[in-house]
Design brief:
The chain is α+β, with helices and mostly antiparallel strands and 372 residues long. The chain contains 13 helices and twelve strands. The strands form two sheets. Strands 1, 3, 4, 5, 6, 7, 8, 9, 11 and 12 form a ten-stranded mixed sheet that branches. A two-stranded antiparallel sheet has the order 2-10. α2 packs antiparallel against α8.
Length: 372
């Protein structure tokens, strides 16, 4: 038992000695693996975080359903103002409906922020209403509300002037976040800016309790429209449920694996060439092909664990920095993605080390000892 432990410890010493004997090459391998892990975690964390945060904001509006035109995007920033505002009165006339809020969604391309054009009274009536941190509701066409997240990020205060949709607006109120958009402007103003007279992008609807019945009644009015419940929408706000995002995430993950594979392949191939005589000595002393493969793959395993640890640490540090510098940007890093990033790093590194390891194990000891 003692000899077995000593033998294993001796092998570990040799393995670790081989790694620290070439510090620059080992560091490059660790850095490449860390980049792969960071890439995987940041892409997954950003997509998951943004979608989750957006779902919560839509839920916070207080509606049970929302009505969109046919073939509309679930991403409200890409919704067109094609629905007649008067259709909201038809929805409101249904016995199952408690409140309807016509909403025009506009994307401020310059600031990359979503703006809602709303009828304040009707939108506010969907829930307990806006919770004001400061100020008052807008009253004039050129006035706007900002939520506390964007106000903190952009250092806005009541009375400040902000450019939205290439138009100046005076901030009259700072409200608690979680009501869909970051900025809210009068519906008429939004329609004038968008050139969408008496048209809106969607209707938020609060039922009297029977969500399915209300949905069926709205569809009877206009069967071609898209009517979704808020709970259904929130379930869609997951990167695994959105086919549009899957190719992007897979591409980024694949790119990370390729980076790790190429760097480890180059590193291990060069290392094997440098250690040809050493490998010949080991084989002459009785090491089998399997022993050589295990030694080289063991070194790769240690480098991968070091790189994964560094990548995870840098990712969480970046998450903390971004949370402080940009509160509007949500990054969610789950334990599942952490484990997957490590597994992907191991797979890429193992694939890169396999060929050099097999080549090294096939060396003839006589030829290897004569190598200069």
């Amino acid at each position: 038992m003692n000899e077995t432990f000593e033998g294993r410890f001796s092998k570990f010493q040799m393995l670790w000695g081989n790694i620290i004997a070439r510090p620059l090459r080992s560091f490059l391998s660790v850095a490449a693996i860390a980049i792969q892990v960071i890439l995987v975690l940041m892409i997954a964390g950003l997509t998951t975080g943004v979608l989750s945060e957006w779902g919560k904001r839509v839920e916070g509006v207080g509606a049970d359903l929302f009505v969109q035109p046919p073939n509309s995007s679930i991403f409200f920033a890409f919704s067109s103002a094609v629905m007649l505002e008067s259709f909201g009165d038809q929805i409101a006339s249904l016995s199952q409906v408690d409140e309807v809020a016509p909403t025009l969604t506009l994307m401020d391309q310059k600031n990359f922020v979503l703006v809602y054009g709303i009828d304040y009274q009707r939108f506010n009536a969907l829930s307990r209403g806006f919770l004001f941190r400061a100020g008052r509701p807008f009253e004039a066409p050129n006035e706007a509300l900002a939520d506390d997240i964007v106000a903190q990020t952009r250092h806005l205060n009541v009375g400040d002037t902000v450019s939205l949709l290439n138009h100046p607006f005076t901030i009259t109120g700072i409200v608690a976040h979680g009501k869909g958009a970051r900025f809210f402007i009068p519906l008429r103003t939004a329609q004038d800016i968008a050139g969408a007279d008496k048209r809106v992008s969607m209707f938020y609807v609060r039922s009297k309790g029977d969500t399915d019945g209300t949905r069926a009644a709205i569809l009877k009015l206009a069967p071609d429209n898209r009517v979704r419940s808020i709970s259904e929408y929130i379930s869609l706000m997951n990167s695994s449920n959105l086919p549009e995002l899957k190719p992007f995430i897979r591409t980024m993950v694949g790119l990370g694996i390729v980076i790790s594979f190429l760097v480890v392949l180059l590193n291990m191939h060069t290392m094997v060439l440098e250690r040809t005589r050493e490998i010949g000595i080991l084989k002459a002393l009785g090491c089998s092909r399997l022993d050589i493969i295990k030694m080289l793959l063991g070194e790769t395993f240690v480098l991968t664990l070091l790189g994964s640890t560094l990548g995870i640490a840098v990712t969480f540090l970046t998450q903390a920095i971004l949370k402080e510098s940009n509160p509007a940007l949500t990054i969610l890093i789950s334990s599942r993605w952490v484990m997957q990033s490590i597994a992907l790093a191991l797979a890429g590194a193992a694939a890169g080390a396999l060929y050099p390891a097999l080549r090294a194990s096939s060396y003839d000891p006589v030829v290897a000892l004569a190598y200069e």
